[in-house]
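Here is a typical protein record:
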Amino acid sequence: MRRKKKTNSRKKVILTTIPILIVWIFAFYLYTTYQNIEITPSNYETTKTQSTIKEQTVEEAKEDSKVVADIIEETTKKVVGISKLKNAGNSILSKSTESELGLGTGIIVTGDGYILSNEHVTGAKHSKCYITLENGTNYDGTVVWSDTDLDLSITKINAKNLEYVTLGDSSKIRVGETVYAIGNPIGFEFRRTVTSGIISAKNRSIKIEEENKSSYMTDLIQTDATINPGNSGGPLIYPNGEVLGINTVKISSAEGIGFAVPINIIKPIIESFQNTGEFEEASIGIYAYDKEVIPYLSSTTNYNIKFEKGIYVAQITKNGPAEKTDLKEKDIITSIDNVTLNTMNDLRQYIYTKKPNDEVTLQVTRGKITKEIKITLGKK
């Protein structure tokens, strides 16, 4: 009996020892095998990570500068001098002032002689002015369209096959972008002067006081590119030569604060003159302000109103198109034909694409009420 127990005990020891021995032998095999594996460069490849931003060399920077200079040189050929007097003088030593001579700047916008400038440079519609091209050729000009609120005008000269500027998209401008202003500061002696700067701000509203009257210019581009008397009507351009605005005014009490009218506002009018030789201006028959102007009004009047979007109807023109509808003063127009309105230029730009007798639909907010109002446009 005892012998049988000893036999069983030996079997248990053997059965326990064998698996342990097998595991130890296998582990020793793996260790010796991996120790003999030789790792060579061909087994793998390493790559250092690096920035994808390319550093510009001095030579490349000079080349970029040369390209910009070439573009600006081409653009200046499409910039003209404008005077209200046929003999405006050509020296800064002239006793006549810039305003008396009407010295200013314009740009050629079509090959058949349409010139874009400021109204305060050329005069109002039907006025006569005198245009000097880059090659020195002089033309008599007639103002065929102007707008006092925008301070823009279009003048026609009898010329063909002119080189004209490329109009950019002012709705896509960004603060900080590089821009150049071109104009005739002081007088023709310094014609086609180029200054550089950046877009300092957009959608600016400013108050203009002239002859005891106040007016407001809205949705302006602010720039620190130097704008001097005589620069008025000249282009504000990108480095690629595209025109994004028309220089119009500067703050006289500060340096580096000038303003330009966004080019998009005038595009439909230029296109109409280019395609048909005329432009019939439609009218909605209201005086309105966007929210950027309300603070100016609130300080001197009872326009104590706040709104986030749209334009505020301050007055409805007597016997105008809007008077025949349900539109009322103090209404907020938020859209026209489903086009969102945030500035007066949004409204102007859309109306410029229409003709008298076209019908438009306004989305209007009156207190807590929202309604649609249809208006048949009149002729301005």
User: Anything to note?
Assistant: Helices lie at 2-35, 58-76, 98-101, 119-122, 267-276, 294-298, 344-351.
